[in-house]
Amino acid sequence: MAPILMLGLMAGFFYAFSVCVMTGLDAISPDKAIAAMQAINASVRNPVFFVTFFLTPVFAVGASVLAFAIGDTRSGLFMAAAAGIYVLAAVVPTALVNVPMNEALAAIDPAGVDAAAVWSNYSARWTFWNTVRTLTTTAALAVAIFPLIESR
């Protein structure tokens, strides 16, 4: 149950950014949007987020191993697939795209750049990749839940 809850938390986290946070930031002045996103990115670096983000695949693999150990091969395969989807389609894009973009944005002084151009380029690309993370984490959640629904 823990990996399902954790996948749900991460899917919701990503979802909120794509449908609310980024559209809200797009509605304010670019210099303020940059400053707000810098603050948001700094605040995300906290133990609660790290545990949820990084331990989700660990818990999913653990649940998969336990399922295999008790002979529930089907559930084990689905949970392993959920872990794989999450790592490949959420963790990897985070590491390769979103975090480097956040680090580059953190180094910017909104008053010293063309804030409109910086924010436009950042927001569109960041939101696209965040939406990928939203959809794939939601898919991983569905895969993890499927054996529970299907067995009824």
UniProtKB/TrEMBL annotation:
Q: Is the keyword Membrane assigned to this protein?
A: yes
Q: Name one Pfam family in it.
A: Anthrone_oxy
| InterPro entries assigned to the protein according to its UniProt record, in alphabetical order | Anthrone_oxy (IPR013901)
Q: Does the keyword Transmembrane apply?
A: yes
The entry's keywords: Membrane, Transmembrane, Transmembrane helix
The domain of life for this entry's organism is Bacteria
Membrane-spanning ranges = 7-28, 48-70, 77-96, 128-149
Q: What is this protein called?
A: DUF1772 domain-containing protein
Q: What is the native source organism of this protein?
A: Oceaniradius stylonematis
